[in-house]
Amino acid sequence: MKKKLLVSTVVAIGLFAASAIAAEDSDTLVRFKGGIGAIPVSNVTVAGTPPVVTVSRNIVRNISSPGQIWVIRDLEARVKINGDIKVEGKGLILGGGNNVGRATGQSVFATLICEAAAPFVERSTTTTGVLLAANGDFKIDDVLVPLPPATCASPMLLIRTAGSGNWFAAGIPVVAGNSSRGNDKDDD
């Protein structure tokens, strides 16, 4: 009798956990796993001494990159249908310049863009942002404004600086059936 009760309890707990996971996925609009740091594009004009260096921005959906390289070690984000967003980033630091390997006091916020072509709607967390830790780690737990649409056909998540609004990192969208980066929903 005790054995049957124990098995029944374990099965009930498993079913409850599975239904909770299914409910969580049912209200998820889009997920991101992994991140890419911003790399500005530099052009050097050799007319003159010293040569004139112009930096052109790496523009993503009308949002410019910063003037310096940024890298990110890891990023995970989940956006719900109601606009709730949770982002956890690790190691968002400078990848070049005199402060390479450091986060130098910036605050960041998240922007979700669902449109593949202009006009783009920027759905953002509070633009005052959250402060990067010295090692570049950060957590965002907020609501996007304006709210996202019911479907997000071409999801782009940008982590942006509260100062200029430039993007420092982009999230890699989770695509069902793409196991090459471990992006299947089954790997949670």
Task: Describe this entry's structure for a reader.
The chain has 188 residues and is mainly β. It has one domain (29-175). It contains one helix and 13 strands; from the N terminus they run H-E-E-E-E-E-E-E-E-E-E-E-E-E. Strands 1, 5, 6, 8, 9, 10, 11, 12 and 13 form a nine-stranded antiparallel β-sheet that branches. It has a two-stranded antiparallel ribbon with strand order 2-3. It is globular, with a radius of gyration of 21 Å.
Per-chain topology:
Elements: H1 2-26, E1 28-37, E2 41-45, E3 52-56, E4 70-71, E5 74-80, E6 84-90, E7 93-94, E8 107-113, E9 123-124, E10 130-131, E11 138-143, E12 156-161, E13 167-173
Antiparallel strand pairs: 1-5, 1-13, 2-3, 4-7, 5-6, 6-11, 8-9, 8-10, 8-12, 12-13
Instruction: Enumerate how many helices there are, as a single number.
Output: 1
Q: Provide the domain count.
A: 1
Radius of gyration: 21 Å
Strand content: 35-45%
Q: Order of helices and strands, N to C?
A: HEEEEEEEEEEEEE
Looking at the structure, what is the overall shape? globular
Instruction: Give the low-pLDDT segments.
Output: 9-23, 178-188
- Strand pairing plus helix content: what structural class? mainly beta
